[in-house]
Design a protein that fits this description.
The chain is globular, with a radius of gyration of 18 Å. The longest helix has 12 residues. Helix 3 links the parallel strand 8 and strand 9. It has a 6-stranded mixed β-sheet, with helices on one face. Strands 10-11-12-13-14-15 form a 6-stranded mixed β-sheet. It has 288 residues and is an alpha/beta fold. Helices cover 23% and strands 24% of the residues. Helix 4 packs across helix 6. The chain has one domain: Ribonuclease Z/Hydroxyacylglutathione hydrolase-like (Metallo-beta-lactamase, Chain A). The termini are far apart. It contains 7 helices and 15 strands.
């Protein structure tokens, strides 16, 4: 019998991000996937309002937080992973190729405190790694293409794909970040589409395509295979690559890419304070 976790998604309209609270019904052990730290860019103020709501739901349901999981180093929002670790002692896991992302972006921000070894994270996962969440089994699937470090987490009949896949009527992730590659993304998605048809897919963001007015973030393998506007219906690899690269060429940088990456390569820790005790985010000019 296939295991089935309880899943609750928390949608942030400011960044179109979904944070997931995933739990084992038998033991109450829970993981938080892609936790969000609120950030107001004009005032440069952070807030834990969103993640506090997730933790309130966890406590009210009698769950125990066992793990924080990151699908990748996000370029559109700050992670609350370090906040959760400081508040609860929980460990943080991410794909082991985060070291490539740290190597690419650490020098951009002159982040001397960021060693490109992933050590700021507690668990560095490789493709095929398996571990427990209560009585549930978590399988790590390396799904690069959006970034070289992207992973998806398969937990029973559910898989959490981060930015690799979006809802079928929106398509797939951009591949023009350093280390991204459209052909690699296509092949990663094909791996996901070999999972059983009724596997639940939980995506990392939702945006409203023309004709839809409600935000959604749960679909299935069967729906993606048949209906995804970028890869559904048996789209060929070459056709996907041509479409994806042409589309990426029209996209601007995410609004929060510079604040997000310098925090997220630190697992959510803010940059260390300067001599005056103040922490600063760096905005390298004309660099991206």
């Amino acid at each position: 019998m296939t295991q089935s976790p309880d899943v609750r998604g928390f949608f942030d309209p400011a960044t179109h991000t979904v944070t997931y609270l995933v739990s084992d019904p038998a033991t109450g052990q829970a993981a938080i996937i892609d936790p969000l730290l609120d950030f107001d860019a004009p005032s440069a103020r952070t807030s834990t309002r969103s993640i506090d709501a997730v933790m309130a739901a966890l406590r009210s349901s009698g769950l125990t937080l066992a793990l924080v999981l990151e699908t990748h180093a996000h370029a559109d929002h700050l992670t609350a992973a370090a906040h959760l670790r400081a508040a609860t002692g929980v460990s943080i896991g991410i794909g082991g190729r985060i070291t490539q992302v740290q190597s690419a972006f650490g020098p951009l921000f002159d982040a001397e405190d960021v060693r490109p070894d992933g050590a700021v994270f507690d668990h560095l996962y490789a493709d095929g790694d398996v571990f427990a969440l209560g009585d549930l089994t978590v399988e790590v699937i390396h799904t690069p293409g959006h970034t070289p470090a992207c992973v998806s987490y398969r937990i029973g009949d559910a898989v959490f794909t981060g930015d690799t896949l979006f809802m079928p009527d929106y398509g797939t992730a951009r591949t023009d970040f350093p280390g991204g590659d459209a052909r690699t993304l296509y092949r990663s998605i094909q791996r996901l589409l070999t999972l059983p048809d009724d596997t639940r897919i939980f995506v990392g963001h939702d945006y409203l395509p023309q004709g839809r007015t409600d935000f959604r973030f749960e679909t299935t393998v069967a729906e993606q295979r048949a209906q995804n506007i970028h890869i559904g219906g048996g789209a060929s690899e070459d056709a996907f690559v041509a479409m994806r690269e042409a589309r990426d060429a029209t996209l601007g940088a995410p609004q929060l890419i510079l604040p997000s990456l310098q925090v997220n390569i630190r697992a959510g820790d803010l940059p260390p304070p300067d001599a005056n005790g103040q922490r600063y985010l760096r905005l390298p000019l004309n660099a991206i």
